[in-house]
Amino acid sequence: xxxxxxxxxxxxxxxxxxxxxxxxxxxxxxxxxxxxxxxxxxxxxxxxxxxxxxxxxxxxxxxxxxxxxxxxxxxxxxxxxxxxxxxxxxxxxxxxxxxxxxxxxxxxxxxxxxxxxxxxxxxxxxxxxxxxxxxxxxxxxxxxxxxxxxxxxxxxxxxxxxxxxxxxxxxxxxxxxxxxxxxxxxxxxxxxxxxxxxxxxxxxxxxxxxxxxxxxxxxxxxxxxxxxxxxxxxxxxxxxxxxxxxxxxxxxxxxxxxxxxxxxxxxxxxxxxxxxxxxx
Length: 280
Fold this sequence. Notes:
By secondary structure, the chain is α+β, with helices and mostly antiparallel strands. The chain folds into 2 domains: 5-114, Aminotransferase class 4, branched-chain amino acid transferase, N-terminal domain (D-amino Acid Aminotransferase, Chain A, domain 1, 2-Layer Sandwich), CATH 3.30.470.10; 118-276, D-amino Acid Aminotransferase, Chain A, domain 2. The protein is built from 9 helices and 14 strands. The protein has helices spanning 26-29, 48-61, 69-82, 116-124, 137-140, 156-167, 210-221, 233-238, 268-276; strands at residues 5-8, 13-14, 33-41, 44-45, 88-96, 106-112, 126-132, 172-176, 189-194, 197-200, 225-228, 241-246, 250-257, 260-261. Strands 7, 8, 9, 10, 11, 12, 13 and 14 form an 8-stranded mixed β-sheet that branches. A hairpin with a 2-residue loop joins β13 and β14.
């Protein structure tokens, strides 16, 4: 098994088997912090500029002051150099509000192996359940204290949804708003195809997907059309293809919705190849 690697932002490597977070860190006490995750392939993080930009957006939404980007690059480089595992590595950038009374965030970079199930999801597809999110995207977008669109450490609800799916014979879920519009998965963005047109839901009330933007750029260069538009559960059921897209999972075809099988999408191979192309 590939051994995880961790570094502080000054480039110092830390032993992943030794404590790093203090017991009074707000990231532990309240889940008060942010993170980004992407895939590094052959020592090169994918879409790093965009992930760092989204990290700063999340920090702004939490009124969290981050160290400069040069510090993050120092920590990232240390992890990339120290990694001795496979060609693919999961790269995580983590920042908490820090210890009580310190006023300084706790920041570090973590590199680790790609989960064993990722390759299966990419190849075989995933079964999803549709779950009520309890709000509409446009509605929650007007309530900034709910932090919709921020990638925070408070992932308990998302993980509870994944466990619900597992208990009910599925792999993952897709959240649906109270207005009937599709939102997102707990850790992924939804994309459908109608012919040579790719569609993803609007970003109101959800996390803006970095990997979806990469996919859309590559697909448009290959002759596809791509757009953002509201989607309904019926759109998922009748589409020529449905995928969950994320920085590590990349492209996973949806092969079942609420227990009803659906085609994995004839374009899955083409889109996966486009998404895996080398890039910034």
